Amino acid sequence: MRVLNPIQIAQRLELLTEVGVALGNPDTGYVLDRILHVARNMTGADGGTLYLPNADRTSLRFHISINETLGLYQGGASGREIGMEAVPLYDAAGAPNVSAVAAYAAHSGRSVNIADVYQDGVFNFSGMRSFDAAYGYHSQSFLTVPMKDHHGTLVGVLQLINARPAGRGTIGAFSATDQRFIEALASQASVAITNQQLVRQLEELLEGLIDLINIGIDEKSPHTGRHCQLVPKLTMMLAEAVHQTSDGPLAGFHLSDADRKELWLASLLHDCGKITTPVHVVDKATKLETIVDRIGLIDTRFEVLLRDAEIAALRARCEAGADHAAVEAEHARERAALLDERAFLRRANIGVENMPEADQERVRRIARRRWRGPDGVESDFLDDDEVLNLTIRFGTLTAAERKTINNHIDVSVRMLESLPWPEHLRNVPEYAGGHHERMDGKGYPRGLTGEQMSVPARVMAIADIFEALTARDRPYKKGKLLSESLHILGKMACNGHVDPDLFDIFVRSKIYLTFAHENMDQRQIDSVDESTIPGYRP
């Protein structure tokens, strides 16, 4: 056995320390490169190969291949493709492949140390012989070490070629000491790489769970589902524009890759509480809509009144001495009044931005009409709930329904704050839960002021409002024109609703225009005169 002197031992320990530091790097590709380079330096190997199992774990693919004598460096950080075929782990019959030394090490979990492959009669080295012939090289000593994690799962296979002991120009065998050092290196690296893979898998699982929530919201309401896709997109567009800003109040705001990931996840989850909101409230297209639009029930009552009016007219005509012309005139007047009231209630059922008080009072007058239902009981034409809904002044939601809608943000906050977020994602609840707050403190759920809100939360507030204004797929409204949406958002910047500095960047960076061309109906994209936008100075 070749005995290492104190200097050599110190050098190897230094190399192990180097790779230990490298294992903390989140870039798995960089870590794998360092493992192979350190292994070669530690043993004086002329060449080395790092194999990784393919996705279905049926073969070992060449991930990195290095040969110093031939000047070859393929795969890994080199960016050069490795043209060699993968090593199958199983034969055609499905039995483990034990003829290839790398496959044998992978299956057995044992290292294989061969002093001279041309003298070995155990393994099939036909591929190596072809390589030697093609490149005029001579392979001799091989050290093949499996890399397995703490569960015994194969991570990869490390193979070193042609040991060149320090101070000797000739090729020799890898010593038992070499083997133990490389096995220690492989074990240490396997655990670190597995940890990195687990972190990535957990991140993918988290994103998958977020997608799961959004799929649930989308299935309840495709309109809200599109909102959950577009708000993150617009949020990141504006955040990047703020990141690029070099002057003004927001010049000090910068995003790292970790910050971007945190904001992206928060924007995906900003409406997660809507999974609990009743769909007939979320998608309430008309004032009387619940599970169905109750205007149909009112139409039926009008048909009953029209029928009653016609029956009364016929009976009046049958009375002795009846004035048929007067009866017909009265019937026509009553019929016209009923049809006009029916048409009015149909119009009133459609949400408007400001229902006149006179129209609300007319609804109440119609409600006091009397009609007899199928049970023969006479009652008011409209019940209290129908009157309440038909006299909604703005939109289609009652105060109670609007409270139900607004409650989604409370639910979102409770859901998000209940999760054990890691340190690098600790701001997700604050970002996602703040998009309905206002700069003047009149927002909800916590009534925060602009000074109490983070920049990302204020960014998301603008993205949420602008997407809602321009959305063309809402059942209760049409998507507004681009110029109209900017005018409304500009007013909000002036009256303390949204951050005026962020709104300035939103307009100045033309974020609105990029978003419009990518996501809005072309018929909504009209000409915008930025000089007329409230709160903006070109």
TrEMBL record:
UniProt signal peptide: none
InterPro entries hit by this protein: GAF, GAF-like_dom_sf, HD/PDEase_dom, HD_domain, HD_GYP_dom
SUPFAM superfamilies named among the record's database cross-references: GAF domain-like, HD-domain/PDEase-like
Gene3D superfamilies the UniProt entry points to: 3.30.450.40, Hypothetical protein af1432
Domain (HD-GYP) ranges: 306-522
Protein name per its UniProtKB record: GAF domain-containing protein
